[in-house]
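Supplementary notes for students who missed Thursday's class. We covered one full example, reproduced here. Read the sequence, then the structure, then the short commentary at the end.
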Amino acid sequence: MSASERVTGVIDGISTWTGRIAAWLIVPMILVLVFEVLIRKIYQPTIWANDVATMAYGTHFSLAAAYALSLQKHIRTDFITQHLSLRAQLWLDITQYLLFFLPGMALFLWLSWEFAEESWFFKETLVTSWRPPAYWFKSVIPLTAALLLLQGVAEVIKCFRALRTGVDYRNQAQPSEVT
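Structure (token representation):
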């Protein structure tokens, strides 16, 4: 196994692990929302349920982004590139990753780190009647950026390896209910 295969395997594993763990945040979100609907009919609305559901779903959606990228499930222009040769597709992916995606994610990581750091410094709370801590939730943003940046590097490595060998190493999973 080459070094590039080991590196991309580790990065894909991290993305898969975080995506699958984050998927479980749907369960507490559903439970909180069902509780809110029931308690609202029986007694009175809660002041915390909407905030908890929003934070659970936001975290779920954000942390699964790198997993989606590893599965090639982000929005792409496949209707254009599907008619190109593998080599042309790979060069197009490499160009887009190096010119747009990786610099964008690096900037996103830097700015979101400062955003989360400031939130931790001030022990910021959400502007709702419940006022839960916002800094935990805002820490998900730079974590998401770091995971996406890492997965983007893995995708570039896969593209270069595919150019060298002629075998497409990018995940070409078929559409399914799970992904």
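Commentary. The helical segments are 3-23, 26-42, 49-63, 65-70, 78-81, 86-122, 135-138, 140-165. The two ends are 28 Å apart (CA to CA). If anything here is unclear, bring it to office hours.
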